[in-house]
Amino acid sequence: MKQKLTSSVQIILLLALTAVGLMGQSYPGKPKIIRCHSLEKETFSCWWKPGSDGGLPTNYTLFYSKDSEEKIYECPDYKTSGPNSCYFDKNHTNPWTTYNITVMATNEIGSNSSDPQYVDVTSIVQPDAPVNLTLEIKTSASITNLWAKWSPPPIADVRSNSHVYNYELRLKTEGMEEWETISVGVQTQYKVIRVQRGVKYVVQVRCMLDLGKWSEWSSERRIQIPKGQSPPEKPTIIKCRSPEKETFTCWWKPASDGGYPITHTLLYSKEGEEQVYECPDYRTAGPNSCYFDRKHTSFWTIYNITVKATNEMGSNVSDPHYVDVTYIVQPDPPVNISLELKKSVNRKPYLILTWSPPPLADVRSGWLTLEYELRLKLQEGEEWETVFVGQQTQYKMFSLNTGKTYIIQIHCKPDHHGSWSEWSPEKYIQIPTEYRVKDMVVWIVVGVLSSFICLIMSWIMILKGYRMVAFILPPVPGPKITGIDKHLLQRGKSEELLSALGCHGFPPTSDCEELLVEYLEVEDSEEQQLMPSRDHGHASKNIKMIPKETDSDSGRGSCDSPSLLSEKCKGSRARTLPSTLQTQGVRNVQENKGGKGSCEILCLTSEHRIIPVNNENPRSSTWPPAQLPNNQHPMFAYHSTVDAHTITLSATNMNIAPVLVGNEENHQPQYPITETVHDNLENRGEMENFHSKTDQTTVQVKQNRPNDQSPFLNPRLMDYVEVHKVRQDVDPAVLLKCKENSGQNEKYTVPGTSKEYTKVSTVVDHNILVLMPDAHNQQASVPQEPAVETPQNVQQSEAETDMSYIATAPSEMNREDNGSDYMDPSSFMPPFK
Amino acid sequence: GMLTPNGKEYTQKIPREELTHLILRLLQAWKEPLSHFNHHIEHHRELPDDSLSKAKQISNMVPELKTGVEKVTEKARSMGIIIDSLNGTASSEAAGLPISNEANMMSDSDFIHCFRRDSNKVQSYLKILKCRIMPENSC
Questions:
Q1: Could you say which of A300, A367, A392 has the minimum Cβ distance to residue B8?
Q2: What exactly does this protein do (chain A) (predicted)?
Q3: Alpha-carbon span A62 to A48, nearest angstrom
């Protein structure tokens, strides 16, 4: 209740006041004494803070009383200490009294007084802070000290200097929080020991009178303590060198920096002398060096050299270095390195490397003698090869890899007492590659020639291939029967030809069919004898063939044809034997063909069956087997497959004569295969058994004969009878000797009597002439093969030529033509009718 | 001691004859000390044999060298290259080398050091002399 009442009263009062305030005028607020203090105990001042002025000008008055006295005094001085202050000067200040001070604020409306303030002068004494604080660093003997100096606070009243202040200093390093407070005393300076280097310090100072309070701290002062404050370390002398044995230079390594700039001095003394000199020239040779020129260089004396480093803190001296100039010579590298390529006597190239000594070295007077050494390596190589050259300034290099690049360096040294110079800059050398023109030319020529030769060889091979093969493997030469007129053959008229051959009435007419023909087969056992004269290769085959046949034949003996043959046949005659060469038999047959109508030697048809043999290109030709009628085909495999000669039928090309002649001339083992044959036959359209390979191959006519030997080999049919004589004149007939009738041959029914054969029924197998006895002469039922059959057979096979030999050699007839194996069939055959 | 030129210029300034004499004098001066030295070190057991033989070999070289120089000088004199104005005989001063029979004033290493230096002097003088007398000979 009370609270509520008081609060409500306060609210009312506030409202009244604000009402009054709003109205703008009221009595002043209560001032407040802020502070009273005395600087030096003899005077003091008080300050107050005024309250609100109430909107009206306000006066402030200060009243005080001393101790417990009743008298109230007013402030003697309002101005000295500034506004709202009261200054009590000396006269009014009594340090041992207590003042009771109040301030009253007065305005038109009313007044207000502050609370009383009891002031004891002694307790309010507080001097100002000291001023002019300075800091200084002093280092002595490598110890750094910090000096702080200041001045006492200023006093208005100068005359009273008797104040003794007591000071206090505090410092701290920047960044730290805690101050180190040092009691200084009454001095106005202080030396701070134990100062860390490289640290910034903050210093403040304050003072106090003998009574009272401490003043405020003065403003801060900061200072940086420098680092490294020490004398330098010991320098060292690195080396001394003379480039030309006339001057020399010494270099040293400077001492570490002690925080201050360092200067170096070089001092030297000579052997035997006491005096110490300083370096004459610090500059010429660069920093940290000393250059001794000619005047200051003495040889054969020892120099004692030292270097001294000095800085603000102190100095230091290096160790002594003893030098005798004669032994410290190190020249510069050689210069003017040049290369020259030269050719020696035997055309081998070599390099001459020349150089000159370094420019400073005086080699000419002999004062300095240099020795050289060079090193070289391949550009892509790894190891250097070092060569000591001596005192000469050139070097010859042999046996270098041509085309490669070398790197060369040279250095030199005095011949005695010195050290090697630096290597000269790298010199690159390219060895030129030697094109030996001679070698190239030789190789080129060789290459061209060989290629040329190869070309020629291959061309020859291509063109003359046949001939080469023929040269290597010669065929059996053909028959050398001549006698047929080439032109006749060429003309191609069979009748004329046949008439020339002496065959009249050829082909045989049908008369022959009626006749029983006794087959006589003439043995060609001469083959064995005559073989050596011929190609063995071919004959061997014949031989092979023969034994088969002869085995079957038992009719040998006195009637053997060999004996007869041996008598009759000579030389060229032998050729006519069927045993020898089939070609001859062909020719024989062919000869017989031409113009001899009576002869039936050939089982060839007349006109279109004449077989030309190409004369120009003798090639292999195969003899076609004489194709006999199949049923009565005594097969004699006389022909050899190898050298069978093809004689093909051709109507257009009648070259029989040339064949006969030509073959002999050429005597080629291989007869030309006629391409014309091929054509002609094709024209015919009947090429049953004709296999032709053009060009170089032998036309091998299919030979029935060898294939089917067996069925046709009828031993019965084969009967060899020796020719008794050949009768030419009246009734040309071949008289055969009697033949022993072995009884095997049924057909021979007339034993002992000689038989006359005037007709050739057929030609078997190139060398067997199947003779027919004349019908009216004999009555022997000699089975005769109808001659008609043969032409038919022959007709059937165009391609196959039937050539057979007359085994017998009608020598009498043909003796006239010795040069040619010509048999005139007309001599032993009556003309056919 | 002997006064010897201490540098190239001094050496080149000296006339040839004087240089020749100087060389000869140097060589002469070292004869005796070397022989003394040889005798001295022979008694030293601690030295290896190589050093002893080498020392002896070098000691023998010096008189030979002197003889050679004398011969060359004679030849040069005869050819007129050198005009002998001084007395050719080498003085027996043995100057410059504090060797005495009584005591070795010098230690062995010092002795060797001095010898090395003087031999280098002789060599340099000879080379300069050579190039002055016969400049075409690789000078």
A1: A367
A2: This is a receptor for the anterior pituitary hormone prolactin.
A3: 9
Is residue A104 located within the same domain as residue A36?
yes
Count other C-beta atoms under 10 Å from residue A289's C-beta: 19
Nearest CA of chain B to the CA of A365: how many Å? Answer: 6
Mean pLDDT of chain A: 68
**Record: contact A363-B139, CB cut-off 8 A:** yes
For B6, the closest of A245, A301, A416 (CB atoms) is: A301
Each residue's pLDDT tens digit, B82-139: 676 555 444 444 444 544 444 456 788 888 888 888 888 888 888 888 888 877 767 7
Number of domains in chain A: 4
Pick from A315, A313, A316: nearest CA to A143: A313
How close is the nearest chain B Cα to the Cα of A374, in Å? Answer: 20
Give chain B positions within 8 Å (CB) of A391.
138
Q: How high is the pLDDT of residue A464?
A: 76
Q: Are A129 and A217 in contact (CB under 8 A)?
A: yes
Which range of A9-23, A687-701, A722-736 scores highest in mean pLDDT? It is A9-23
B4 contacts on A by Cβ (under 8 Å): 300
Answer whether residue A814 is part of any domain. Answer: no
Cβ–Cβ contact B6 with A under 8 A = yes
Q: Among B12, B120, B130, select the one facing A416 at the smallest CB separation.
A: B120
Q: Do residues A87 and A80 touch, judged by C-beta distance below 8 A?
A: yes
A298 within 8 A of B6, measured Cβ to Cβ = yes
The per-residue pLDDT for range A611-667, each reduced to its tens digit, is 444 444 444 444 444 444 444 444 433 444 434 344 333 334 444 333 333 333 444
| CATH code assigned at A411 | 2.60.40.10
What pLDDT sits at residue A68? Answer: 78
Query: Distance between CA atoms of A301 and A323, rounded to whole angstroms?
Result: 8
State which of A289, A324, A359 marks the end of a domain. A324
Residues A95, A159: one domain? no
Q: Which residues of A are less than 8 Å from B135 in CB distance?
A: 364
- Examine the pLDDT at A39 and tell me if it is beyond 50: yes
Q: How many domains does chain B have?
A: 1
The pLDDT > 90 percentage for chain A reads 11
* This prediction's pTM: 0.42
Residue A327: burial class (beta carbons within 10 Å; 0-12, 13-18, 19+): middle
**In-domain check, residue A189:** yes
Q: Determine, for residues A300 and B127 on separate chains, whether the beta-carbon distance falls below 8 Å.
A: no
Is there a contact between A365 and B139 if contact means CB atoms under 8 Å apart? yes
Q: Find the domain containing B51 and state its range.
A: 14-82+108-133
Residue A305 structural domain: 236-324
Pick A786 or A360 by higher pLDDT.
A360
**Rounded CA gap, A618 and A671, in Å?**
4
Question: B12 contacts in A (CB within 8 Å)?
Answer: 365
Who among B6, B7, B131 is closest to A366 (CB)? B131
Residue type at position A214: W
Is the model more confident about A345 or about A448? A448
Q: How many Å apart are CA A214 and CA A210, to the nearest integer? A: 10
Rounded to whole angstroms, the Cα distance separating A529 from A516 reads 34
Q: Which of A444-453, A569-578, A652-661, B5-14 has the lowest mean pLDDT?
A: A652-661
Shared domain for A119 and A148, answered yes or no, is no
Least CA distance to B130: which residue of chain A?
Answer: A366
**What gap in Å lies between CA A301 and CA A298, rounded to an integer?**
6
- If asked whether residues A348 and A428 sit together in one domain, one would say yes
**The tokens 């004679």 sit on which residue?**
B74
Note whether B120 contacts A365, CB cutoff 8 Å: no
* One domain for residues A351 and A391: yes
A167 vs A509 pLDDT, higher one: A167
Query: Is B13 an interface residue toward A (CB < 8 Å)?
Result: no
Q: Which residues pair with A77 in a beta bridge?
A: A87
